[in-house]
Amino acid sequence: MTATLTEPRFDVERVRRDFPILGKPLPNGMPLVYLDNGATAQKPQKVIDKLSECAENYNANVHRGIHSLGDRVTVELEAAREKVRAYIGAAEAEEIIFTSGTTMSINLVANAWGRKFLQPGDELLVNEMEHHANLVPWQQIARERGARLRFIPLTADGRLDLSALDEVLTDRTKLVAVTALSNVLGTINPIGELAARAKTRGALILVDGAQSVPHLATNVTAPAIDFLAFSGHKLYGPTGIGVLYGKRAVLESMDPFLCGGNMIRRVRKESSDFAELPAKFEAGTLPIAEAIGLGAAIDYVQSLGLAAIGAHEHELTQRAYRQLSQIKDLKIVGPGVEHRGSIISFTVEGVHPHDMAELLDRRGVAVRAGHHCTMPLHEWLKVTATTRASFAFYNTPGEVDALCEAIEYARQVFRRK
Amino acid sequence: MSDDVYDDHILDHYESPYHRGHAEHPTIAHEDENPLCGDQVRLELVVDENERVKEAWFDGHGCAISQAAASILTEEIEGKTLAELKNFQAPQMLELLRVRLTAARQKCGLLSFKILKTMIYTLEERKGAGSKPA
């Protein structure tokens, strides 16, 4: 006897009702078509409610007050940490450091690890598709320590060229810093292979998960990576909260980055001992409500399931890729859909991205235009700017169509035949 | 003032700009960019002995507003004296564009104006330095 299992269809209309902002028309009366999820994602009611719950019911500092509010808020914060741990498959909650965002997470590693372990002549392996936040901190620490950056070349369609990896990944390489999903090209990078090859050279690997963690299943132990950085606000959570995952042994080998309250065990007049993980890297008062809100965002994403989210977003990306490819004089940057997350950046001849974004906005379509904090990548692409549409699970096929119609409208305004 | 940023006046200047290119022997040249969106403009002026702008040229790339504004500016300032241009102010520049710009787009609309102001200042400095007794 065989049973037919049918996956419950992803009910996007029901999901959209969880996001109050999606139902509100714009000032010009147009319905919102929000395709700027790569910049920041919208928040479900559950996250908004959690922030209010926190402020209205148990606002206090964590790990300090011997009073009931302090107890409650600490329990909530540590529950959020546990949710993050489970979401990314970390072995221990102590390996989850709360930061202000991806940028702070990467800067923490560049400073706390780089300053202690980088020696003159050492190499850091990066590439041209990295966001400035995963390039500039390495430039700065390399300069300070006399180390140098090396770059994995890109293939013509905007993927990492692993055939050239042996030339740039050497015994001098101390760390590989790489994005799991390019914020412009949409490229999904082969983290598993990079992690394995870095390990054979004794190099650490830091993964920028800002774009991948909200959309693709993440497990920091398979393939095993040393660091993962991501932000709460792209994961449908609040701004001001981010995460640094670090393998316990690596985090323990590092000195603190920021110093102050919460991160110490004992302070004497001339020297101090530092707290255990994770407090060692959480100096000062955390964005407490935001961290708890991030926990609620993860609960929400888990309730939908990353498999269902991924399938829906992939359908949207395929539809967009197909339709955009048919627009005259439109050029998509980056690889084919099979190597791509739910991000598509493009140029349209005769319509500058800045003008494109303004004209799309008239039709209610929110996209991003510019260099998206990836100037070296745009130099590589030989364009000064691109227009980027980035999809989330609450976007619909109809919104993909609206994007394409709005692009045709922009071409008409610019008298493109 | 038009509410449509992309009216014919802007688009005409964007598509068929006035004096896009380079002066043969510029008295002064300067360029700048709007790092946020990557608009880039270079202005070149030929100034005669009566301190009058004989020729104004621009080159660059970027959004329609930034490039049309540069074209409109070069057309406007030819024949004007440096003293007149010193009194030329940002609201007048925005007026010349004939469209209402949001705060964000004013940066695009005023990029070439900012470059012009830098050049006028530099020319004055030069003049001041040249007239100082040795």
Feature tags:
A: 417 residues; alpha/beta; seven-stranded mixed β-sheet; globular; B: 134 residues; alpha+beta; three-stranded antiparallel β-sheet; 3 strands
Structural features, described:
The complex is a heterodimer of chains A (417) and B (134). Chain A has 417 residues and is of the alpha/beta class. Chain A contains 14 helices and 15 strands. Chain A has helices spanning 12-16, 45-57, 68-88, 102-112, 114-117, 136-145, 165-168, 191-200, 248-253, 288-304, 306-325, 353-362, 375-381, 397-413; strands spanning 33-34, 96-99, 123-127, 148-152, 173-179, 204-208, 227-231, 242-246, 264-267, 272-274, 330-333, 343-348, 365-366, 368-370, 386-390. In chain A, the strands form four sheets. Chain A has a seven-stranded mixed beta sheet with strand order 2-8-7-6-5-3-4, with helices on both faces. A four-stranded antiparallel beta sheet of chain A has the order 11-12-15-14, with helices on one face. In chain A, strand 3, helix 6 and strand 4 (148-152) form a beta-alpha-beta unit. Chain A is globular, with a radius of gyration of 22 Å. Chain B has 134 residues and is of the alpha+beta class. Helices cover 47% and strands 19% of the residues of chain B. Chain B has helices spanning 8-15, 64-77, 82-86, 90-97, 103-109, 111-131; strands spanning 28-34, 39-47, 53-61. Chain B has a three-stranded antiparallel beta sheet, with helices on one face. The mean pLDDT of chain B is 92. The A-B interface holds A 352-355, 358-359, 369-371, 378, 384-385, 413-415 and B 5-6, 11, 15, 36-40, 61-65, 105, 108.
